[in-house]
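help with this:

***
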Amino acid sequence: MRSRLFSQLFAPVILLASAFSPVGQAAVQNRIASAVNSGVRNPLPGTVTGRAQRAADLGAAPADKKLESMSLRFSMTPAQQADLSQLLANQLNPGSGSYHQWLTPEQFGARFGLSAADIAKVSTWLTGQGFTITRAARSNTFISFSGTVAQVQQAFGTSIHSLSVNGEAHFSNVTDPVLPSAIAGVVTSIVGLNDFKPKPHLRARSAASIDPSQPHYTQTLSGVTSHYISPADFYTIYDENPLLTASTPINGTGVTVAVMGNTDLNAGNVLPDANIAQFRTAAGLPAINLKLQSAIPAGGSDAGVSANDIDEAHLDIEWSSAAAPGATILYVFSSNNIFADSLTYAIDNKVAPIITISYGLCESGWGTAMLASYNNLLALANAQGQTVVSSSGDAGATDCDGVGLATEGLNVDFPSSSPYATSAGGTMFSGDVATPATYWSSANGTNGGSALLYIPEQPWNETTSSAGLGYNDGTGGGAGGGGASAFFSKPTWQTGTGVPNDSSRDLPDIALNAAAIHDGYLVCSSGDGQGETPCANGFLSANGNPNVFGGTSFVAPTFAGILALVEQKVDPTGATAGWLGNVGPTLYGFLNGPTYSSVFHDIISGNNSVPCTQGTPNCSNGQPTGFTAGTGYDQAIGLGSFDINALVTGWSGVKPVGTGTGSGIGTSISTTALTTSASLCAVSAGTLALNVTVAGTASGPTPTGSVQFFVDNVAVVGGTTTLSGGTASYSLVTSSLSSGGHNISAVYSGDGNYVGSKGTLLSPVSLSYVYYNGSTPVTAYPSGSIASVDIVSSTSSGKPDFSFAPATCGATTTVQPGATAAGVTFTITPVNGFTGSVSLTATNGDGMVATPSFSVSPVSITTSAGVSTSFVVVASAPTTAARSMRPGLRPFGRGPAGRMPWYAAGSGATLAGLCLLMLPRRRRWGALLAAVITISALTAAGCGSNTSTTGGGGGTTPPAGTTNASPGTYTFTVTAISGTLVHSAQIAYVVP
């Protein structure tokens, strides 16, 4: 029986969807042909989060545990995606009749959502499974519901387990769900099957007591002077004062900025909030116009104030309102998941023209289904005229890593990597180091400011003492996130001087100060953990301590506030037509126009490089990996920081780029798969044979056009080939490549029927899906971990080198806790007359409690014969060492992302790079093929799979002073080094 709540929630949506259907657009067609039943089922890949894959499995979760924030997120048809893409371009094109004609949620649903009839069928099925409908999407893009673990497992055919991550209790699905075939083709993901939360992008600096009588809140540590940034300093450095002090102030009046939160603001959510009021008083600002909006689903529980999130909430509100002192700040909060609840509510209800979110996770940690769903949500925001500003992350160019040496390689943060969000990166002040008196006054002003003028900047990088200009006191650190997306292709508007020719969405877009150490921001927050009353004495506590923070968490809300100034300036009436939508075309319009140099500070020195472990991805030589600032755009700070007054006053005169005819995505979706039959471990031949297959819709024409090949995101000269029958072959010359690991990808150009797409070379067939299209079996493209092709100097090059490979490329070994795994044999074979000593190292970024060793290390090569060594792992370690190995959330960062699935079937977490599209597509194969029959093989890191098992029973009881490895899947990177030559391979260990 359909629930009464469903009738109450959905009846208005169905009526509104009909009433607001845009003129000239046909009503959406029904896509579910018959009543939903639980007969034939299709899997929904990409839903097991990377953090669950690395967690210790504690067994099945309690059957009666309630899951409150679940939702089915609906996909669009290729025709709807193409229509939306062109609409988004037209809405930003001043020459189009659709310019700034923003949609309501109901109008969006009538054009791009699921039909009312289909929503009714899905809802009937959900309630028939015992679920309670908790929220109806005004945009017809999702249905929210709640239920128990038992109901979820029965309805979706998945397993919900209790997990432990660094001592924190969690739950998650550990296998991908399956859906009735009638609805599988219209669902992108199921949100809410785990309780892992994205982490805030802030860095706390624990400052010692300071004397408030000292000038400009100066603190001297080891002879180094630090300055803390107040709103008055921000106004001076970035030139906002002319706007605030104008006869008609441009301060954000009449504009609302929505701040996304994951906690109550205070006990009972009572306004005014004391922390925010004290901040405004200390800054000399009038009382804030603050409103609260709960996004907790109907029947959901409010967890109250979260100690892990309250600092983020206060700084986001305080600094968005500091940048726009007259704006209304709407704090949208939830308890379970900021994306599933807060962000979804803010967009589906079109609560404000500008949204800021300072939470994120590296792309590979989301799972492809979640990326697609939330990218769809951000596209909805843009179509409604909403601007979404997102922090780019605080781990530099290696977003999947926290503090310490990076091991996960170059990665970027989502949602910052979405083409529908503005990515906010970080800078740090550097010009005041030699002559601080030039830039800072000797006394505080009335409102706590002492900055005198703009201070030259470099990319924020406090990961090392040298990168951080000597200001690393051990309590801050971090660097601004940036790099190339592994999932999203480059939007048409991201163009201009310095923009990489990598066919990928690059980030960040803009940057402002984000330093935690030199120089951090002042915040008033009760979450200081010191038992003090914050801001009891101006910006200082009663004991003289300030709350000092850094991180790109500051850049997103401050830029959101600056956009409120832009909106007020562009349209003082506050009309909806004055909303800005996606500001990317205008920002890059500055880069391509005559005013760039007068508006932006083009920072051309410094980097966001992070120290890394030699031999791990993107770290062949052991030097920090990342990106360097340069002329125009770069992946360290984007377009740079800017003069706020010049940006706001010059906004209307900028010509947006990438919004003209033909700037849409295309008419249909394509997918690109790149494969090779060669082993990817120790490639010593002069060429590598590559094969590309580009596919479109099942009933559509065969894709035509060309494919460009890339090595490490750099286009191969002459590396373009033409498709024939949707396929192409190419021989990549490897003799010109440097020795060591390389990532190889292919980009399809698109044609009159299909949008372009991008595929990355994966390990050989390690996971395949067999479908039936009618009576014809069809095997989908193979999936696996992204392959790092290990290039060894070929005979033709004549360069001395050596190959380094395990007996079986990409081996997977099972070892019981406390037992010793079977040894993995590596052979080092000289090439082109190589001789010398080869040292061996093993790195495990997953935190496995283990004791690794080599039977021979270093290995001496004195003849033309190869020498072997055995790599052995004991699944235990002394307790004191084990404490430092525990997997989990790192300070100031997100937990480690999964590189490889730990359950046999359908994780999909390693689908990164199969297909990069600016628009997310619906579930990869559901629109094309009717039903999944089998899922075969396991995904393994490296170049293939081989499984061996050692240790019996349930493991051994550890002796006193020893800790056994926890259940999970762990990947070791084994590296051989001789001088500048570096080769590595990965071995996976499964601890049951």
User: Anything to note?
Assistant: The first helix runs from residue 4 to 19.
